[in-house]
Design goal:
heterodimer, A: about 180 residues, alpha/beta, Rossmann fold, 5-stranded mixed sheet, 5 strands, B: alpha+beta, 4-stranded mixed sheet, 13 helices, 15 strands, about 45% helix
Chain lengths: ~180, ~425
């Protein structure tokens, strides 16, 4: 296991402690088809994790993301990813977009930059991470599961590839939790 | 300075989900020939999705339209349906509704002021870079957000897409003891809110003003938030039920968007913080009024760049109002009033952080939604933003591409347009010929 990436304030989750503060944040809007993959994973996790694991639905807005993960020993974020053209360089996977392909990133691999958004709606995970780093509000460990999506038009229901990916990610998140000693 | 014959500028906002928003500016022979803004689609999907649903469902469904202002959608939906069914809230429940709305105002405005707008004035590309140099300031913004989220969680059941709201009131109303700690937290927060006004009032603002007509709710005696009568700077006054007679939505050729205009008015109008302040500043509660005075705001404000100051004043107002509402709070006997379905039509308007949000429902005899119409603030403001950009660009053609692009973005940010329903991805194109 890699060391915590950012001295979370009041971090009481040192090795050996049996109490682990764990939060899973599902980002997305279930009324924008594939963008609902984050909420879908949350709902699949609902029956599978103990009450001690907080499940948080989010629109990705940075201040709320930071609030959700501050002080956590482990924060897992599930988000939709729209890839234009060249795949996701950070993971070393080339090629074009592949709906349903999943990426597991630990925090250090995510480029945290600021947006030039013209609306508060344009802010996202990159801003949340950048801001949390600047303010020392990172969780001890942050894992991002991103699912490449294809259809974010209005509507409900995931496309088949993304629906399958939701199950894959649910299993992957459970593995992340198990690795930390959470009984799942 | 750059005066090449042909150039194109493209800037992209961070996209969690890609949409199709764009702004297009064409300059020829030193004149602004065309400005097109296509940032927002009306929530037609939701209007269609609501048809056939039970009259109890629109507050929850429409709350999902906007992650930043779900309470506004819930409130306008509840009011429209309650009006259709002939129900009205007793003062206790109405007070709670206003309290919840105050939480949303604080949350949304603090987000916009600290994360988005202030970096423009301080010369940072974004909040992340600003936080590195101004940590204490950004932490103050997050503290404001925390108290807002606490209000939303205590009254609304949770801080995103509140689940405790229903037609006729709430599923559960808090005991006074649950709200008291919130009031204590808010009293501390009031100082942070006042400091915020002082801070942003010191920024430098471009010399710019608009002469658009202004539209806002008014409720004599209080600063209108969750209810009231619509008034305009041109002297109109009309109820939510007359909204469709006064606000006409028209298709514009270059986009899927509908632009709204006021019937019989040649120019544009807009809604939102500047309109509210200019039409209702006399009703601000004491600390907010004092902050506005100290910030140098007159009774009206028509410079969209100063909307950051007005938002900060409205945060003070919302904090003060939340404290008052909690101090006066007595737990209602029932968490909701009965709302019996019947065939009818209902209209509701409330002041979302970005401006007036209108809902209109037609119910059939068993209370199912026969039709729904939603007019959000951004579709009303789109024409005004476009007009602002046209005159703004015309005065700044000597700027180089990068500076002009940035200033255009800033001019759009003044309105904090809602792009969540339709677009998360913004492109800006400037062509000069």
């Amino acid at each position: 296991m890699t060391a915590g990436a950012g001295g979370a304030a009041g971090d009481g989750g040192a090795a050996g402690s049996s109490v682990r503060r764990v939060v899973v944040i599902g980002v997305g809007n279930e009324f924008r088809r594939d963008d609902g993959v984050g909420p879908e994973v949350l709902s699949q996790l609902g029956a599978a994790v103990p009450d001690s694991v907080r499940l948080v639905a989010s629109d990705g807005e940075p201040a709320r993301m930071i609030e959700a993960w501050t002080g956590a020993d482990l924060a897992v974020v599930v988000d939709a990813l729209q890839v234009a053209g060249a795949g996701l360089a950070a993971t070393g996977q080339g090629g074009g977009p592949a709906p349903g392909r999943t990426h597991r990133l630990v925090i250090d691999e995510v480029t945290a930059g600021s947006a030039t958004a013209v609306s508060s709606h344009g802010l996202g995970l990159g801003d949340a991470i950048g801001l949390a780093r600047a303010l020392d509000l990172m969780p001890a460990r942050l894992i991002v599961h991103a699912v490449e999506v294809t259809d974010c038009s209005y509507g409900v229901g995931l496309t088949p590839a993304v629906a399958a990916a939701a199950e894959t990610v649910t299993s992957a998140v459970l593995r992340d939790l198990r690795e930390l000693g959470v009984p799942v | 300075m750059t005066h090449r014959a042909d150039r194109t500028l493209v800037t992209t906002g961070l996209a969690r989900v890609e949409g199709e928003g764009s702004m297009y500016v064409r300059v020829a022979g030193g004149q602004v020939e065309e400005v097109r803004l296509d940032i927002y689609e009306p929530p037609r999907f939701f209007e269609a999705f609501l048809r056939g649903r039970a009259y109890t469902e629109p507050p929850d469904i429409t709350a999902r339209i906007c992650g930043i202002c779900p309470v506004a959608y819930q409130t306008s939906a509840c009011q429209a349906i309650e009006a259709a069914c002939g129900a009205s809230l007793p003062p206790g429940l109405a007070g709670l509704r206003r309290l919840l709305y105050c939480g949303e105002w604080i949350s949304s405005h603090a987000l916009h002021i600290y994360m988005l707008h202030a970096p423009d004035f301080l010369g940072y590309p974004g909040a992340v870079e600003m936080a590195r140099d101004h940590r204490a300031i950004v932490e103050r913004g997050l503290a404001l957000r925390r108290v807002a989220n606490a209000i939303m969680a205590t009254v609304g059941g949770r801080s995103i897409h509140p689940v405790n709201v229903r037609v006729g009131g709430f599923y559960r109303v808090p005991a006074p003891a649950e709200l008291r700690p919130l009031a204590e937290q808010l009293r501390t927060t009031l100082d942070l809110a006042v400091e915020t006004v002082r801070w942003v009032a010191g920024f430098e603002f471009p010399d710019f003003s608009t002469d658009h007509e202004l539209l806002a709710l008014r409720e004599p005696g209080v600063y209108a938030i969750e209810r009231g009568t619509l008034v305009t700077s041109g002297g109109r006054a009309f109820t939510a039920a007359q909204f469709d007679e006064h606000v006409i939505e028209e298709h514009v050729p270059h986009s899927n968007a509908l632009h709204a205009r006021l019937a019989g008015l040649d120019g544009s109008y807009f809604t939102g913080p500047l309109a509210r302040y200019s039409l209702n500043s006399r009703w601000l509660p004491p600390a907010a009024a004092e902050s506005a005075r100290a910030a140098g705001l007159g009774p009206t404000c028509r410079n969209p760049f100063q909307s950051i100051v007005v938002r900060a004043v409205e945060v003070v107002c919302a904090v003060e109002e939340a404290i008052r509402l909690i101090d006066e709070y007595e737990r209602p006997d029932q968490p909701s009033v009965p709302v019996e379905p019947r065939a009818g039509t209902g209209h509701g308007v409330s002041e979302a952080p970005r401006g007036a949000l209108y809902h209109h429902y037609v119910l059939d005899a068993v209370g199912n939604v026969a039709s729904a119409k939603i007019v959000p603030p951004t579709s009303q403001n789109q024409a005004a933003i476009q007009d602002d950009l046209r005159s703004f660009v015309a005065d700044r053609l000597d700027l180089d591409d990068e500076a002009l692009t940035h200033q255009c973005e800033q001019a759009i940010r003044n309105y904090d347009p809602c792009i969540s329903c339709a677009t998360h991805f913004l492109k800006l194109h400037v062509e000069r010929g």
